[in-house]
Automatic annotation (TrEMBL):
<dbReference type="GO" id="GO:0008713">
    <property type="term" value="F:ADP-heptose-lipopolysaccharide heptosyltransferase activity"/>
</dbReference>
<keyword id="KW-0808">Transferase</keyword>
<dbReference type="InterPro" id="IPR002201">
    <property type="entry name" value="Glyco_trans_9"/>
</dbReference>
<dbReference type="InterPro" id="IPR051199">
    <property type="entry name" value="LPS_LOS_Heptosyltrfase"/>
</dbReference>
<keyword id="KW-1003">Cell membrane</keyword>
<keyword id="KW-0328">Glycosyltransferase</keyword>
<comment type="pathway">
    <text>Bacterial outer membrane biogenesis; LPS core biosynthesis.</text>
</comment>
<dbReference type="InterPro" id="IPR011908">
    <property type="entry name" value="LipoPS_heptosylTferase-I"/>
</dbReference>
<keyword id="KW-0472">Membrane</keyword>
<dbReference type="GO" id="GO:0005886">
    <property type="term" value="C:plasma membrane"/>
</dbReference>
<protein>
    <recommendedName>
        <fullName>Lipopolysaccharide heptosyltransferase 1</fullName>
        <ecNumber>2.4.99.23</ecNumber>
    </recommendedName>
</protein>
<keyword id="KW-0448">Lipopolysaccharide biosynthesis</keyword>
<keyword id="KW-0997">Cell inner membrane</keyword>
<dbReference type="Pfam" id="PF01075">
    <property type="entry name" value="Glyco_transf_9"/>
</dbReference>
<comment type="similarity">
    <text>Belongs to the glycosyltransferase 9 family.</text>
</comment>
<dbReference type="GO" id="GO:0009244">
    <property type="term" value="P:lipopolysaccharide core region biosynthetic process"/>
</dbReference>
<dbReference type="GO" id="GO:0005829">
    <property type="term" value="C:cytosol"/>
</dbReference>
Length: 331
């Protein structure tokens, strides 16, 4: 095995949770080159993993929004770059039209994709001349690792290796030292995933009473307003300035605890080995959650968001910070 192409196009959380596949391939085929094809919006995150030799990216999302001539030319150029190498194996672990098209355009002897019933979009099946086995009965993240390992004939360590090396930032982020930072990722692109600001405020006050400094990140003006509304209810809480993804990653790395909704940056916190609590309200916790006993845990479920006591209990489970006598009992 000389050259392998991984195809996982979007989104942030999915990209982060695919990184252990690269480590698995590196262990199984130490001399192989491992390339990765993805949307340009997430290419930098893949480059944080030194196990990836070449990141092939195209501004697919950007072109879909703006339809600019420049983006179209960049997509055309990326096709030429994609076809510059011939792969022994192409593994499409996304399973939708856009990933299938990339797998089909790439030059390779074997193009693996999911079985029809496991594809995100059935029409993607046209691109493959080999298939993964039936989707294993496990979460989505381990399932990707199992599918690739079974197809290529190797075994992997149960503990995922994300192998992230953050690049330096170009400005002083003014991250406080000797401070127990708790980042609360309240923002999410889907309103159905949101948690009430009063709940966030109650969690923030609970953590503040235990010596944490609360940091509230945001990405849009609306999210900034929501962060300010939460901060107004949590004495001493800080609304962070607008951060790039890598800047936010440095804040995460400096934090002792991260609590947030089912979003990509919370998956990144888990990958960076932070103590992490992920809240679910609109997607499957069993399928998309994180779980490492004593460090990361997911609470809530599709259609049944967690209440405050459940979240406080989850925080206790990853920090070892039990409630004090006289506080609200968590059931």
């Amino acid at each position: 095995m000389k050259r392998i192409l991984v195809v996982k196009v979007t989104s942030l959380g999915d990209i982060v949770e695919t990184l252990p596949v690269v480590s698995d391939l590196r262990r199984a085929f130490p001399s192989a080159k491992v390339d990765w094809a993805a949307d340009a919006a997430f290419a930098d995150i893949i480059r944080w993993n030194p196990g990836v030799d070449r990141v092939l990216s195209a501004p697919l999302r950007k072109f879909k929004k703006a339809r600019s001539w420049k983006d179209l030319k960049d997509i055309a150029a990326s096709i030429g770059e994609l076809r510059a190498e011939k792969y022994d194996v192409i593994v499409d672990i996304h399973g939708v039209y856009k990933s299938a098209i990339i797998a089909f355009i790439a030059r390779g002897r074997r193009r693996y994709g999911y079985l029809n019933q496991d594809l995100g979009e059935r029409g993607a099946a046209f691109a493959y001349n080999a298939r993964f086995g039936p989707r294993p009965l496990t979460d989505a993240w381990r399932g990707m690792r199992v599918s690739v390992a079974d197809a290529l004939g190797y075994r992997f360590d149960d503990t995922p290796d994300y192998n992230i090396r953050l690049p330096a930032v170009t400005r002083d982020l003014e991250i406080p030292h000797n401070t127990r930072i708790a980042m609360l990722f309240h923002a999410t692109s889907a309103d159905v995933k949101k948690w009430p600001k009063e709940h966030w405020a109650e969690v923030g006050r609970w953590l503040t009473a235990r010596g944490y400094s609360i940091a509230l990140p945001w990405g849009t003006e609306r999210e900034q307003g929501e962060a300010q509304a939460i901060a107004a209810l949590v004495p001493g809480a800080t609304v962070l300035p607008k951060l790039s993804v890598v800047e936010c990653a440095h804040w995460i790395q400096a934090s002792e605890l991260v609590v947030g909704t089912d979003t990509g940056l919370v998956h990144l916190a888990h990958a960076l080995q932070r103590r992490t609590v992920m809240l679910f309200a609109a997607t499957s916790r069993e399928h998309f959650g994180i779980d490492e006993p004593g460090r990361s845990v997911s609470v809530g479920e599709e259609g049944a968001p967690p209440d405050v006591p459940q979240v406080l209990a989850a925080i206790e489970s990853v920090t070892g910070a039990p409630l004090q006598f006289g506080e609200r009992v968590i059931s």
